[in-house]
Amino acid sequence: MKQLPAATVRLLSSSQIITSVVSVVKELIENSLDAGATSIDVKLENYGFDKIEVRDNGEGIKAVDAPVMAMKYYTSKINSHEDLENLTTYGFRGEALGSICCVAEVLITTRTAADNFSTQYVLDGSGHILSQKPSHLGQGKKVALYTNILYLFCLNCFFKKRKLLHEYKCIALGLVLIKAS
């Protein structure tokens, strides 16, 4: 046996969260709502297969949080598992942006009320900041994804097809399938 490369592990785990263009847009809208947005604009190019852009007027991302904003399992919503009992947000796991970074080129432009100007961040596949520059966005956040997201959907279809074939094989052999509930 051998350990999978980190990039492969990230892609495989991301395929559990990012399953379609709809799932990407849903995650980004939930992030916007959690940030207090009252206005959210969604733009898709080629039905979201080439570009997805979600812009909001929410709180924005604090500069101090920018280095970890797309790192998996970093979140501002909970500190421990006890906090799960009192959740009032849509997202809390810190997986959405990190998973999206695995399947797309991600640019995040953000500005808080305390900022004098917005900053555009270019992120790598692991959610690390590659570059940043001043920008002109008002308060809130814009996430732009330039993507070959079709690749991930093909990967999901492959896994679903393999699982279905396995289930058919078990049925043909008279084996009992046990599903966790």
UniProtKB/TrEMBL annotation:
Note the Pfam families from the entry: HATPase_c_3 (PF13589)
Q: Which domain of life is it from?
A: Eukaryota
Q: Which CDD domains match?
A: HATPase_MutL-MLH-PMS-like
Q: Which GO terms describe its biological process?
A: mismatch repair
| Any one GO MF annotation of this record | ATP hydrolysis activity
**Could you name the Gene Ontology cellular component terms for this entry?**
MutLalpha complex
Task: Give the protein family.
Answer: Belongs to the DNA mismatch repair MutL/HexB family.
Q: What is this protein called?
A: PMS1 homolog 1, mismatch repair system component
This protein's species is Macaca fascicularis (Crab-eating macaque)
Upper lineage: Eukaryota, Metazoa, Chordata, Craniata, Vertebrata
